[in-house]
Amino acid sequence: MKYLHTMVRVRDLDQSLDFYCNKLGMKEVRRMDSEQGRFTLVFLASADDLAGAEAGGSRPAPVLELTYNWDPEDYGGGRNFGHLAYEVDDIYETCQRLMDDGITINRPPRDGSMAFIRSPDNISIELLQKGAAKPAAEPWKSMGNTGEW
């Protein structure tokens, strides 16, 4: 398993970028706008992490994902903190092992690519398939969501 990113929701993207980039010194490494989903994702990395990755590190720098939803939303109750994300070698094997250990799969990997679970402290954790998505397979493709993710 490899740590990928932490996601936080932001109310004002420009203000947040000023804080993280101009004041903390982080660098924007990629951005994605979704017209359909009405959101913008901006991925930031620290200069030190980027330098380590560029100097021949074995993996890309971990990032902070800023999620800006275009429609105003109240992020009460800690909803502004989104999730931790980890890349796994086999999404189906990982989810099965977690289920066997009593962990609820809140969002099953129906697409062979992404699943969500919760920590004992109710922190949302995204699991992403390394490389290309696996072909859709049962029991995952027909399994519904459980609770919130």
Count of DSSP-assigned helices = 3
- Shape assignment: globular
Largest sheet: 7 strands, mixed
Q: How do the strands line up in the largest sheet?
A: 2-3-4-1-5-7-6
| Second-tier CATH architecture of the largest domain | Roll
Q: What is the fourth-level CATH superfamily of the largest domain? A: 2,3-Dihydroxybiphenyl 1,2-Dioxygenase, domain 1
Helix content: 10-25%
Total separate domains: 2
N-to-C series of helices and strands = EHEEHEEHEE
User: In what range is the share of β-strand residues?
Assistant: 25-35%
Report on the structure:
A seven-stranded mixed beta sheet has the order 2-3-4-1-5-7-6. It folds into two domains: 77 residues, Roll (2,3-Dihydroxybiphenyl 1,2-Dioxygenase, domain 1), CATH 3.10.180.10; 54 residues, no CATH class. With 149 residues, the chain is of the alpha/beta class. It is 19% helix and 34% strand. The mean pLDDT is 88. The chain has three helices and seven strands.
